[in-house]
Amino acid sequence: MSFFSKLRERLSKSSSKIGSGLDEIVSEAGPAPVQPAPSVPAPAAPAPRPTAEPAAERPGFMGRIFGSAAPAEPRRELDDAMLEDLEDMLIAADMGTDTALRVTANIAEGRMGRRISATELKQALADEVTRIMTPVARPLPLYPKKPQVVLVVGVNGSGKTTTIGKLASQFRTAGKSVVIAAGDTFRAAAVEQLQVWGQRAGVPVMVAPQGSDPASLAFEAMTRAEAEGADLLLIDTAGRLQNRADLMEELAKIVRVIRKKDPSAPHNTLLVLDATTGQNALSQVDTFRKLADVSGLVMTKLDGTARGGVLVALADRFGLPIHAIGVGEQIDDLDAFDARDFATALVGL
Ligand SMILES: Nc1nc2c(ncn2[C@@H]2O[C@H](COP(=O)(O)OP(=O)(O)OP(=O)(O)O)[C@@H](O)[C@H]2O)c(=O)[nH]1
């Protein structure tokens, strides 16, 4: 199955919320406007011929020639009330107030007073989402630097381990050599999980005794990656946010230590976000940008949530590159982020 088909299928909670929201908004229209009465009296209608079919269902002349046309879609005049409904629906779909307002205003431009269908509205929304997201849809940049050091940050449970496993596997498939460092040394379960992913991906995972200093593990991993001429070093980190000062110090120390080996490292700092947290993802970006020099985002768990609209809010507010999205727990359920594919799937087109 192509990733786009998977995305369409797995984004269905978000897309059915948005898609059916737009259908409802349009169907809330009152009766179609009354046509002005013809100035010339119409000729008396011929007496209806007895027929099994109601006359209204008979196809017109063009329909008889080209085959029967689909029933016309309901339409609603785009006015202030409809825009307000649209804005509320976008906010409910986790796009955030500012983004919802901007998107609504852009959709209104040039369309006020026109009677539009749900399909036209979906198309207009997909265009707006694509416009916002195109500048941030950038795959993880790869540098000739060996090893390219990728620091992976994010709160516990956001999907860091899984993302590292999936990335490692994809890089391996692309012929790159990879080393993983299990930098959350406090959580034995996290280390074990990373080892399982490493096995699946065929990538060595460097671990340290529970509770030991993650920075010294990072240094050892850097030494090994250099010695082996590895293309990439992926470093997992702890995600405890209860004590930000500790976490900040831990991350800063990892960076200090790897810079002893390569002053330009880390080359990427990926923040992994869980789509099911909705608007909370915005405050996580704020927090992690203060803790680390976040260079790009990965959004996981877009399957199984109706809150996928938050990715639009993130793109609009921060403009940070979105490198990849996750739509499941399997190794091939992560792929580069494509703005048009995402927008189309999100609105249910
Ligand atoms: N449905 C779904 N589940 C995912 C996705 N990505 C990760 N998960 C699941 O989310 C859970 C947490 O993922 P982890 O990769 O362990 O998250 P973490 O950030 O490393 O968390 P810690 O190990 O607690 O630090 C696991 O059960 C994963 O299988 C995704 O894209 N979709």
Keywords:
binds guanosine-5'-triphosphate; single chain; Signal recognition particle receptor FtsY; two-stranded antiparallel ribbon; cell division; EC 3.6.5.4; nucleotide-binding; alpha/beta; 46% helix; 13 helices; 10 strands; elongated; 349 residues
Tell how many strands the DSSP assignment holds: 10
Query: What does the radius of gyration come to?
Result: 27 Å
String of helices and strands: HHHEHHEHEHEHEHEHEHEHEEH
- Percent helix among the residues? 40-55%
Distance linking N and C termini: 18 Å
Organism: Paracoccus sphaerophysae
Family: Belongs to the GTP-binding SRP family. FtsY subfamily.
Membrane topology: Peripheral membrane protein
Biased composition (Pro residues): 33-51
Written account of the structure:
This protein is an alpha/beta fold and 349 residues long. It is 46% helix and 12% strand. It is built from 13 helices and 10 strands. Strands 5-4-6-3-7-8-9-10 form an 8-stranded mixed β-sheet, sandwiched between helices. A two-stranded antiparallel sheet has the order 1-2. Helix 2 packs across helix 6 and helix 7 packs parallel to helix 8. It is elongated, with a radius of gyration of 27 Å. The two termini are 18 Å apart. The structure holds guanosine-5'-triphosphate. The site of guanosine-5'-triphosphate has 21 residues, from helix 7 and helix 8.
